[in-house]
Write a structure and sequence with these properties.
3-stranded antiparallel beta sheet, 6-stranded parallel beta sheet, 6 helices, Rossmann fold, alpha/beta, 9 strands, 243 residues
């Protein structure tokens, strides 16, 4: 696990999205140049979606063999599939619908019409296991892209909640989320931290305290974002207004 968080300071939110987009495409081009597949965990939020929109505008995205890329979400809102709050729906509009990406490569968690919240968590865990290496419960993501809230939450792992401390599962149902909507599914920290590259995209003056907690190595119970680490690198792309 990488010990240090590399902080990449950028002028604006748009610059954060652009830099993260360029770096993700630059990673995916060599990763998909052979017969290997790449696994990427996406994130929602305005900056996560802006990053996908920036990828859509990059000419270099044509150099990625998208048929070898598997896309996942580190968390998803448990609402109807057509709901505008679905991370996956926003991602499809921002980028996915424009890619030559097989449907089976898009691993979208269940929506409310598919079953219960507990069933959704179990189904997503089963899907992770089906794509894991032998002896593992989930793929080791090549890139896990994360946003961060003003409370330093990542995915749907919130401060002061039991989900932050779970190590015996890959996916959890979340009820009574402090941020609406109240029901979600989320990766656990061990799944995030098995990723080769964990990238945080952050902007906004309301995130400054959370950024400081990450940089100081705060306790996971107080700042879940401070506990995320990739095995190869951990990078926080941050706009100046969040410093």
């Amino acid at each position: 696990m990488s010990a240090e968080v590399e902080v990449v300071e950028l002028p604006t939110k748009a610059d954060v999205a652009q830099r993260a987009a360029e770096r993700l495409v630059a990673e995916l081009v060599p990763l998909t140049a052979s017969e290997n597949v790449a696994h990427v965990a996406l994130t929602g939020g305005s900056l996560g979606i802006a990053t996908l929109e920036a990828i859509a505008d990059l000419p270099e995205r044509a150099d990625v063999a998208w048929s070898r890329v598997h896309l996942w979400w580190s968390d998803e809102r448990f609402v109807p599939r057509a709901d505008s709050e679905r991370n996956s729906r926003q991602a499809r509009a921002a980028l996915l619908d424009a890619l030559d990406l097989p449907d089976v490569n898009v691993h979208e968690p269940w929506a409310t019409e598919d079953g219960t919240l507990d069933d959704a968590a179990r189904a997503y865990a089963d899907e992770l296991a089906a794509h894991a290496a032998e002896g593992a419960q989930a793929p080791a993501f090549d890139v896990c892209l994360l946003g961060m809230g003003p409370d330093a939450h990542v995915a749907s792992l919130f401060p002061g909640r039991d989900e932050v401390h779970v190590t015996g599962a890959t996916v959890l149902p979340v009820r009574n989320s402090p941020k609406p909507p109240p029901e979600r599914v989320t990766f656990t920290l061990p799944v995030i931290n098995a990723s080769a590259r964990v990238w945080l995209v952050v902007s906004g003056a309301d995130k400054a305290e959370a950024v400081a907690k990450v940089r100081s190595g705060a306790d996971a119970a107080d700042a879940p974002a401070a506990a995320v680490r990739g095995t190869a690198e951990t990078v926080m792309f941050v706009a100046r207004d969040a410093l």
